[in-house]
Amino acid sequence: MSSTVLEVHNLRIEIPVAAGLLQPVRGISFGVDKGETLCIVGESGCGKSLTSLALMGLLPKAAVRSADRLEFRGRDLRGLGERQMSDIRGASMSMIFQEPMTSLNPAYTIGNQLEEAYLRHHRGKRAEARDRAIYLLEKVGISAAASRLKQYPHQLSGGLRQRVMIAMALMCGPELIIADEPTTALDVTIQAQILHLLADLQREFEMGMILITHDLGIVARVADKVAVMYAGKIVEEGPCERVFENPMHPYTQGLLRCIPVPGKTRRGEHLGSIPGLVPNLVGDIRGCMFRNRCPHAVDACLELGDTAVSLDGGHAYTCVRDVETIRASSSEPQPA
Amino acid sequence: MSQPAGTAGRLPPLSASEILDEVLEPSPFVKLRRRIFRNYSFLIGTVIILAILGVALAAPLLAPHDPYEQDLSARLHNPFWHEKKFDEEHLLGTDKVGRDYLSRLIYGSQVSLLIGFTSMLISGFIGTALGVSAGYFGGRVDMVVNFIINTRLAMPVFLVAMSAVVVFGASLTVVILVLGLFLWDRFAVVMRSITMQARDLDYVNAARALGCSTPYIIVREIFPNVLSSLTVIATVEMANAILLEAALSFLGFGVQAPTPSWGLMLNEAREYMFFSPWLLALPGACLFVLVLAINLFGDGLRDVTRDQGR
Amino acid sequence: MLAYTLKRSLVALMILIVVSALTFSLSHLATDPALTIAGENANQEDIEAIRKMYGFDRPVHVQYISWATRALAGDFGVSYHYREPVSDMIAGRIGTTMTLGCSAILFALIISIPLGTVAAIRPNSFIDRVALFFAVIGQALPTFWFALMMIIVLGVWWRWLPISGNTSWQHFVMPTIALGYYATPALMRLTRAGMIEVLASDYIRTARAKGLRPWKVLFKHALRNAIIPVVSLAAVWFGFMLGGSIVIETIFNLKGIGWLSYDALLRSDLPVVQAIVLIFASFYVVLTLVADLLNAYLDPRISVR
Known about the structure:
A: alpha/beta, C: mainly alpha
């Protein structure tokens, strides 16, 4: 059985800056079901982190959020004030951040900070909060949990801190967990551990999860659904296997060529790269955002670049060229 | 493929701002000038300082009277905003022995600027020498300098300065020396930390690897780095020295009569504070404006130079 | 933590020794206290006798050691002018100075921390600009002149407050403001800067992501971290304020040890001056030591370094 936890339609974020109106997120739509993992993939600066902050209601003051629909467990989040939003945050929707080294307050013990998350939403139940903290610390693989509660963040390594952050996000048993590049700041060996831990916990507690990352290797391992973001828009989305096996948008194809595949990528062969830079996101941009970097750009990209094409099984992409042309071109070797 | 690849170049750019950014990137000098003219505190501070400096330098031309000339028949004349007991001769009135107040205020700027500037030079020299050597050499030198700084900070400046004036006798030179020997702490603290950071910069390491001598590295490679911070502290300490001199003179432990120092004028005016409060208000206001201008200049300078390095 | 405390205490003690030795030798090398005691009409024999009696004929370092050992026991010698034990003179007056110093630093903190915090929450807002304006004005205002102007306006023209003496709490209002306001700009700027930095930090975002109420984010998570450097600076300023009490106590005729040191300096009464220098220096040293230890407690990372 699948029930929708989060539904987003046409989410936009606008920030007034000196040069004009910065639009880092330009109308994106997606949904997350219970027990489902959605991966949002894209280069840095494509708006994926701002999207997660917008869902939590944690955008910087200057940023303005708007959406046609923003529903969490059937409840409209758009009209909610800071007070009502803060009742949801940490209770039924929590977030794990990129920087475990600085995301914990250095002045308080981790026990204090864990219990605080619970006590905020369950008033006065100190003993319960402590038990829950110990239970979750053990769940995230921290030994001697009871004594760890008295430690300060600076006494823990980066990997341990990220485990604490995960435990903290789970304190109130949320239905949706948003992880914003949770492994980027960690050692490669720790990255895999944390990722498996997240995937296991997500399955065990049947949470919806939004995992934001630029690492396609991670996506392939944990995602149910994938949304590829470029310059504030989702250019391709769909079930994980379909997108990986049959990438339709030139940007997705480019991204996939950037990662080596064992057994398929030959030794000494150059990995792909996407030439050019992400466009400046100030002001309105007509047509396809990717056209100045796209190897297949045609004149029609300027006028019709935003046309969405739906394939079967929920797979969709935005490109003007027809399916057959894309299939043909993607199998050809690309000019460097 | 229906269309050849690589048509991207023919398409119009994504947004106009992209090209504009490249074309309109101004030169560093233009940027600096823009920052200066957008920084009002820097501008106001500079203008006032230049004005006071001008007044101090042109004092003999500007002052309507000799600041030392007493006229016991014209004692405690009121300034121009009073109806009675005001005469055209003395625009800002006269003090208790009939000296022209405007002239004394004008000459007072010389004393304040002289004391502020020279004691700042002395303290700047001591503090920079200590701070730079602590920061550059580190280790034991750093420990010793740190101890000296802490010892200096533990001394109650005002009390020790007053004692020194008692011991050595009150005079302009003694006040300058005492302030110069005491107000170097901020120089030392800031120079120490900046030098520490500068020491590890790549081009300093490169100079060391090339075999440059230590004094050469300090003067040529490190000093230019610390120059803007040095100027900012110099303004703070100059303001500080001017205020301290005024306070010392006010209590009678600074510049001695009949020198026209603003602090000393406040001291002399104190007994008339209930009947002729303007005698107090004027020199104090002069002090306030001068110190304010120096602070504004320093704050502005910090803001102007801060973004420059980035 | 214990090792850190011991190390810092040892340094503090050494600083006190150097400060007292410096002031002692300065005054004893440069002046002849025997002349001061004997008065203007004394002949050479009297002066010699006094020199012997007080031990001024001994080398300076011997004199210092004997002075310092007695000072450790709280005996600062006898005033040359009043012929009274210096410790008694100070003991009778230190309360006034402490009251003044404490109320001045409290005044400064009560003004600067809320103002700095509000300014940091809304940078470049109206309140921020007003606060900055007063900070700039405050830093340029000569303390003693500000005190005199207050006396003229509040004391003489409007007759709101008594202008001299220390018999009631009203007598302390103007001196407190005069001494305290000078520290507010620095404390306020530091609070503002620290607060802005802390509010932008990742752990504040974490605290908000937990759903904590804004006041809890502010008071529990932000203020505690932002306040750490402010505590150190306040301790340093308290030390400065004791020094500044000389001017303020003299102007308001508050007979604390600041006033006493002014009086003693006028009479070249060296034992009194030395004792007060040592007391002020001790206060500074102890306060910065306490502030460091408090910081180490508030920020558990410090003692590790």
